[in-house]
Specification:
The complex is a heterodimer of chains A (339) and B (287).
Chain A lengths: L2 H35 L7 H24 L3 H19 L5 H19 L1 H24 L2 H6 L2 H4 L8 H9 L7 H21 L6 H23 L3 H34 L6 H36 L3 H21 L9
Helix pairs in contact in A: 1-2, 1-3, 2-3, 4-12, 5-10, 5-11, 9-10, 9-11, 9-12, 10-11, 11-12, 11-13
Chain B lengths: L1 H4 L5 E2 L11 E2 L3 H32 L2 H20 L1 H6 L7 H6 L1 E5 L7 H9 L1 H17 L5 H15 L11 H6 L1 E5 L24 H4 L4 H13 L2 H15 L8 H21 L11
Antiparallel strand pairs in B: 1-2, 3-4
Helix pairs in contact in B: 2-3, 7-8, 11-13, 12-13
Classes of the chains: A mainly alpha (339), B mainly alpha (287).
């Protein structure tokens, strides 16, 4: 047996395997490093076309190396390189502009439409909470303090005079920090909405409670004003931003409920798959909720303090509500081809 | 925690559309904690710097002029808290700076491309996993009402959620669970030299018989490769003596590197030849 000659031949063929392909691997690595740092626009057309070719060549090298080579460093290198290539080529398939466009034209309204059952439950809970709190405070004013913490009430309570209550509604707020106030309201409300969403994970119970509580506060406040004959005025004060804000919070609660109920009752899917599917719909809805809250913050911080006419307030609030409903439920993007 | 001892337990198949299994490795809990802490350090540092700038800006300007600055500051802090993770993970690398430093990234469990709604879902859940309990503690602390009970409650909550990933085999956070994602390692390896091509004048002197080459298998070959690449004199000496003793070859102590290089080259060629003939000799116990 002449073994040395045999092993030399093996060494030779495996070395040439590496020598012949090494330039391709290096080229692929360099291209990947560039596209990972900067936009693919910086590549020439030839380079763009060569990316998938080089990726496939790296993959086939990996298969060959796994089958024939025992150089573990080489295999590790090819595995890491192929994985990077895979994530790049199969990862970001659409540009940012297209994704943003899709979000506003299709994904956002579609996610909200998908949540319509949860949304109606959420709105229903708010109404139930409001009615219950209205009735409770009307029957015994001590309920008011239990529902709205004194620190939040800001001097508005069942014992306040009609004058005090009225001044809160029409006080133009002076000139201090209007837009700063708007930014504060936005960040605060968004944090609340994120909670309503994230807490839904616990089988939707906390989300339901949060929405119910939100409705209660609304109802309690309303009772105090209505008892002094200021119900209509409060409605205007609330509606200018409230239609947007309350709708957004109801949607956030609906998104949370979707997750909680899908984890509790996954249906035909596995629990994990159901949770993942619900999570994605809910997340899309939540980004929309944040955009709505941004609008609400602007309306509340600027509009509510500077616009003091009841009719205008109702008009803006009603207009916003109509706008949202039309956008979510009536407006459908015309789909071309197999949409 | 069997996985801490057995890294193979974190390897998952990832078959590309071309039909090659890339065998991704999930990031372990320690790596992910390190990445998260790095991100927190970056966020806090950025917040502190910006706040200092705003405070000095407020001092220099009147209250009227400071208002836009105040708004920018508030929105910036909000963005840091909520958008930092999302913006970076939605990018091309699918990793925050902290993740990039430790060499991991977010990937979709289905193997398809990571979408933006997945990134959003996994990061909004961070709110209840970490920020909510901690901010409750912080708020109560600043109001002077942080009793032991609520602090303990907050800490237990935060711990329970952050340790959640230790209790499932795929190392999923709750956010990962809801988004259908996981965190995988993306190591970067340089293409290093092929040890069997190493030209060593002394190594040429060594020749091995088939019986001597049959003493070891692939597992030992990879260990030998590791030792040679580490290039540690004492380790190589010890290994050379062990191998020399096993195969009955005499070596001078100074020659251990040359001997190992020669033996590695011959052994690899020998085993690769067997591989081509369909005989994968896994280790020295295999026939």
């Amino acid at each position: 047996m002449t073994l040395p000659a045999g092993t030399d031949a093996i060494r030779q063929s495996l070395a040439s395997f590496r020598q012949e392909r090494e330039a391709d691997w290096k080229a692929f690595e360099a291209l990947l490093a560039r596209v990972e740092k900067r936009a693919p626009r910086t590549l020439s057309e030839d380079e763009l076309l060569s990316l998938p070719l080089l990726y496939r060549s790296a993959l086939s090298s990996l298969s060959v190396a796994r089958a024939t080579s025992l150089d573990s460093a080489l295999i590790a290198y090819l595995e890491a390189l192929s994985l990077r290539g895979y994530f790049y080529l199969y990862g970001a398939r659409r540009g940012l502009r297209q994704r943003v466009g899709d979000f506003f034209l299709r994904d956002w309204p579609a996610a909200i439409r998908d949540l319509w059952r949860e949304t109606s439950v959420s709105v229903g809970l708010t109404v139930i909470g409001a009615i219950a709190a209205y009735w409770l405070v009307a029957s015994d004013s001590r309920w008011y303090d239990a529902i709205i913490a004194p620190s939040l009430a800001g001097g508005r309570n069942p014992d306040s005079s009609a004058e005090t209550l009225r001044s809160v509604l029409y006080d133009s707020g002076g000139d201090h920090f209007l837009s700063g106030f708007a930014a504060y309201l936005f960040t605060h409300n968004t944090q609340v909405a994120i909670l309503a969403f994230a807490l839904g994970f616990a089988f939707a119970v906390p989300s339901v409670l949060l929405i119910l509580m939100n409705g209660c506060m609304l109802g309690a406040l309303f009772q105090v004003y209505a008892a002094k004959g200021l119900g209509f005025e409060l409605g205007g004060w609330l509606s200018i931003h409230g239609t947007t804000e309350l709708f957004a919070i109801a949607l956030a609660g609906a998104a949370g409920m979707r997750i909680g109920t899908r984890i509790a009752f996954p249906g035909e899917l596995t629990r994990m798959a159901a949770a993942a599917q619900a999570g994605r719909v809910a997340a899309t809805a939540m980004v929309g909720v944040m955009i709505m809250l941004l609008f609400a913050g602007l309306l509340e911080g600027i509009g509510r303090q500077t616009i003091t006419s009841d009719a205008t307030r109702y008009a803006i609030g009603g207009g916003m509500l109509a706008l949202w409903i039309a956008y979510f439920y009536l407006f459908r993007m015309v789909r071309h081809g197999n949409g | 925690m069997a996985t801490a001892r057995n890294p193979a337990a974190l390897i998952r198949p990832l078959v590309t559309p071309e039909g090659v299994d890339l065998r991704i490795k999930l990031a372990d809990a320690g790596t992910r904690a390190a990445a998260f802490l790095l991100d927190v350090v970056i966020i806090v540092a950025a917040a502190v710097v910006v706040t200092l700038v705003v405070i000095f800006g407020l001092g220099g300007l009147g209250v009227k002029e400071a208002e836009p600055l105040f708004i920018v500051w508030m929105i910036f802090i909000f963005l840091l808290r909520n958008v930092y993770f999302i913006a970076f993970e939605a990018g091309r690398r699918a990793a925050t700076p902290g993740k990039r430093i430790v060499g991991v990234r977010v990937a979709s469990r289905s193997g398809a491309g990571l979408t933006i709604d997945q990134v959003i879902a996994r990061n909004l859940m961070r709110e209840i996993e970490v920020f909510l309990p901690l901010s409750i503690i912080a708020a109560r602390g600043s109001a002077g009402v942080a009793d032991t009970l609520s602090t303990i409650f907050g800490l237990v909550w935060a711990l329970l959620f952050s340790l959640f990933l230790l209790f499932n085999r795929d190392r999923l956070r709750i956010g990962d669970l809801l988004a259908g994602t996981w965190v995988v390692e993306t190591p970067k390896f340089k293409l290093v030299e092929d040890l069997s091509q190493r030209q060593d004048p002394i190594a040429k002197r060594f020749h091995f018989s088939p019986a001597q080459l049959d003493a070891y298998g692939i597992a030992e070959l990879h260990k030998l490769e590791e030792v040679l690449r580490r290039d540690d004199y004492f380790a190589m000496k010890a290994v050379a003596e062990t191998i020399g003793g096993k195969i009955g070859a005499k070596i001078e102590p100074v020659d251990s590197k040359a001997f190992l290089t020669a033996y590695y080259g011959e052994l690899r060629a020998h085993l690769e030849r067997k591989l081509l003939l369909g005989n994968r000799k896994a280790d020295k116990y295999a026939r």
